[in-house]
């Protein structure tokens, strides 16, 4: 009675495969073998007649020592062909596909005749070798290892428990069964397949026992079930299932499967991180060939991520444009570049201070905080122009520098102080919100108004006085 063990891991799987074969010795066998996908993505095969210890000796010879994180191993009880190295499993086709097999393929002679016409050469007397060649041939018209395997399985008559790997898909192992037991083991360092859970007890006690056509059969059953599956909306199981899955015309395979993932996110940064992780997982599924089809992602998280990304870019661009336009307008009004830059300087300082405050408070960047930084520039320009125009008007009326400054504080300064104070209190009320992003919005807004006011009333007047003094000295 044959035995199978295999796995995809992140460690050298060789010791596990040998240990698994020893655990399967009770089933009876006449030869054994294993294949590893080595680091250079090459299938390396070792087989031996007799006890597993004979195979182990071959592998542990220094000149033959091999390692790999992905592999298959098998103990064989001869049915087609005598016990020999060449008839032992695994079998390889075109240095690309490797297969281990329990069971009997009843139509293997017909398949073998066809494959000889296709140009394949046989190195064994087994029925299993036709499976490896069939998958290799199917790969020529398939987009993945899974798709090729599915095509071949439809052509096989008889029983099988199969383990399949390919050098072209180094992170994939296909397990399939029909009339022969096979299970999946979920482990810490990888995932495994075996014909008997005893083979995997050294690495896991979590198992999934494969049933023939279990996914397709379950979906087909639900699509035909007209009983109520959602009492609140009155939907039947058939209606609910059709929203998420559909079968091919022969009802044997999935045409598409929609997986819904519900997440609760509090900030735009979390939204972007989750969206990027979804995109990475989708790309990985397609590249690994695990599903044999395309992966598409959609939903509120993806839409919001796209909107936020666009808003951040457009907000930064518009802020820069606003700053340049403000300098240009001031230059037109004053006809003096130096004074224009003096008025704008506190605005830039306010923006820098806001960013620094966010870093100190440990706040994360999101589209709202980007907008607040832009708001800081807008407020700073507004406050600065009010202070500058009041100061210039006083000077043009005949006041000296300090008198003009004092009058500006008594009038414009007082008005700005009252306006800013009211605005700050209004923003701080947002701290009462249960939503963190709204709380951050309130804090950063209050800080922005405060910095804009401080720089307009205390830094800008000093710069204006210095600019006037410099002008008089010239």
Give an overview in words.
With 474 residues, the protein is an alpha+beta fold. It contains 13 helices and 15 strands. The chain has two domains: 3-211, Aminohydrolase, N-terminal nucleophile (Ntn) domain (Glutamine Phosphoribosylpyrophosphate, subunit 1, domain 1), CATH 3.60.20; 321-473, Multidrug efflux transporter AcrB transmembrane domain (Multidrug efflux transporter AcrB transmembrane fold). 51% of the residues lie in helices and 16% in strands. A seven-stranded antiparallel sheet has the order 3-2-4-1-10-9-11, covered by helices on one side. A four-stranded antiparallel sheet has the order 5-6-7-8. A hairpin with a 6-residue loop joins strand 14 and strand 15. Helix 4 (129-138) crosses helix 5 (145-153), helix 10 (337-361) runs antiparallel to helix 11 (367-396) and helix 11 (367-396) packs parallel to helix 13. The model has no long low-confidence stretch (mean pLDDT 79).
Describe the secondary-structure layout.
Blueprint: E1 3-9, H1 14-23, E2 31-37, E3 43-49, H2 52-60, E4 70-76, E5 91-93, E6 97-102, H3 108-117, H4 129-138, H5 145-153, E7 160-166, E8 169-178, E9 183-186, E10 190-194, E11 207-209, H6 214-223, E12 228-230, E13 235-236, H7 237-242, E14 245-247, E15 254-257, H8 268-288, H9 300-334, H10 337-361, H11 367-396, H12 401-428, H13 436-473
Antiparallel strand pairs: 1-4, 1-10, 2-3, 2-4, 5-6, 6-7, 7-8, 9-10, 9-11, 12-13, 14-15
